[in-house]
Amino acid sequence: MADAAYRIFELAEHALSRPFPLRVRAWDGSEAGPPGAPVLVFRRRRALRRLLWRPGELGLARGWVAGDLTVDGDLYEVLDRMSGLLWGRDEPDPAAGGVVRTARRLADLVRDPGSYRLVREALALAGPGLPPPPPPEEVRRRSGIAHTKRRDKAAIAHHYDVGNDFYALLLGPSMVYSCAVWPGEDTTLEAAQYAKLDLVCRKLSLREGQRLLDVGCGWGSMVLHAAEHYGVHATGITLSAEQAAFARKRVAEAGLSGRVDIRVQDYRDVDDGPYDAISSIGMAEHVGSERYLEYARTLYGLLRPGGRLLNHQIARRPMRDEEAYRVDDFIDRYVFPDGELAPVGATVARLEDAGFEVRDMEALREHYGRTLRAWVSNLEAHWAEAARAATVGRARVWQLYMAASALSFERNRIGVNQVLAVRTDADGTSAMPPTRRGWLF
After folding, report:
1. In Å, how far are 160, 174, 233, 259, 285 from 241, measured between CA atoms?
2. Residues in domain Polyketide synthase-like methyltransferase (predicted)?
3. Cα–Cα distance, 414 to 318 (Å, whole number)
């Protein structure tokens, strides 16, 4: 049993049909793999059992969250080296991601007499027993119709109601949980989030006395910024009770209770329009493709003629077979239950279908990679406090999710865009200046 790492490494290379790019260290202290490479550490036999029962992304994620798997080296480098093996989508069959290919290859190994020895040895190494239960941070498979009000509220609670203290350590004083805008190399995270909030306000051309609706207001940073610096009357809505409580406290402490209202409310239940402007920052990813036109029409109906919408949303790359798209198991089970990403072109099309005139689109992909790395740094710098504020497993979920997401933005697998749209007047005009400089500065 002193060569467990060699056996795991050998099985991985056979299953993947290519060189495995990491070293492996097993619970018995053995190591195998390319010298100098970062190390994937199997701290317990249970990690191997998870992978044998659920090959690929979900087995790895469960091992990571439970602490059965860890890395010795740079986490970003480990994820980058493995991304093509697990999350690649360039295969001829669009429905078969890297996870599916890995699982199929392992099934083939069981049927291959020449490889049967490897599988038998791996089973012996993993030890007897049923598959280990998933970590408690995992959301089980849901049934029924997605994106009902009740199911959306439960999904939001899973992601956001994990403790305001946890998010304060992660996000820093700004309490903004969306892509920042980094004006320069020496910009701090706090300054970058201020720049993003101010950019949204300027794109919406906010003026004193106007009414702003912030859909998915989080911990209240956007409505506070708009009320304090632009004099608007702002309404923020969220489905998270913990966020709302935190935001109301911030509003009261800022002396803005007369100008800012925070509600626990679904966007489909807002009925006190018209508003002069609407911001939706990092919320539309929760809406779902089947509900997106309803979302766009609802916001259109809440705006006065000439009113503007700023929709800030993560986008995925288009695929050859759009019907084959599915959210990665790790994201769906641990991070954003029922979350969906669409290409930016589909988002623009739905906004136009709802009646909006789309006037501007700004891509901020590189900015999100830097934002995520800053959040990871915050989390790692306050690891013990974050683990106490939530759980160790939750901290490990966010560390993995944010590091992997940073690489996805940096490698252009996903992007993030601000789409500025306007509800035109009855004659089809919008009274917007004809150039970006006219309404942005």
Report:
1. 9, 19, 22, 20, 19
2. 166-405
3. 10
Q: Please give the Cα distance from 16 to 84 (Å, whole number).
A: 11
The answer to whether 231 touches 200, Cβ cutoff 8 Å, is no
- Those residues whose C-beta lies under 8 Å from the C-beta of residue 416, and which sit 6 or more positions away, are 179, 312, 313, 314, 315, 363, 364, 365, 367, 368, 409
Q: How do beta strands 23-25 and 211-215 pair?
A: unpaired
Distances in Å between the alpha carbon of 349 and those of 203, 207, 289, 328, 425?
20, 29, 12, 25, 20
> What CATH number does the domain located at 149-440 have?
3.40.50.150
Distance between first and last Cα of the chain? 68
Phi and psi torsions of 31, nearest 5°: -135, 150
Task: Provide the 3-class DSSP secondary structure of residue 202.
Answer: helix
Distance, CA of 372 to CA of 403 (rounded, Å): 7
Structure-token pair, residue 291: 């509900």
Q: For the segment 16-71, what is each residue's pLDDT rounded down to a tens digit?
A: 888 999 999 999 999 999 999 999 999 999 999 998 888 888 899 999 999 999 99
Helix crossing, 116-126 with 45-53: angle to 10°? Answer: 130
Report CA 108 to chain centroid distance, whole Å. Answer: 33
Interaxial angle between packed helices 365-381 and 189-203, expressed in degrees from 0 to 180 and rounded to the nearest 10: 140
pLDDT number for residue 101: 46
Rounded distance between C-alpha atoms, residue 166 and residue 251, angstroms: 20
User: What does the mean pLDDT of the chain come to?
Assistant: 88
**Where do we find the tokens 């679904």?**
266
DSSP string, 238-267: ES-HHHHHHHHHHHHHTT-TTTEEEEE--G
Strand partners, 281: 312
Confidence of residue 339 (pLDDT cuts 50, 70, 90): confident
Q: Which amino acid is at 36?
A: G
Q: Could you tell me the residue ranges of all domains in the chain?
A: 4-126, 149-440
pTM above 0.85, yes or no: yes
Q: Vertex 116, ends 111 and 118: CA angle to 5°?
A: 135
Q: Distance (Å, rounded) from C-alpha 306 to C-alpha 428? A: 10
* Averaged pLDDT for residues 301-310: 97
- How far apart are the C-alpha atoms of 295 and 344, rounded to whole Å? 16
**Residue position matching structure tokens 């935190």:** 246
Question: Are residues 440 and 321 in contact, defined by beta-carbon separation less than 8 angstroms?
Answer: no
Q: Which of 84, 1, 5 is nearest to 39 (CA)?
A: 5
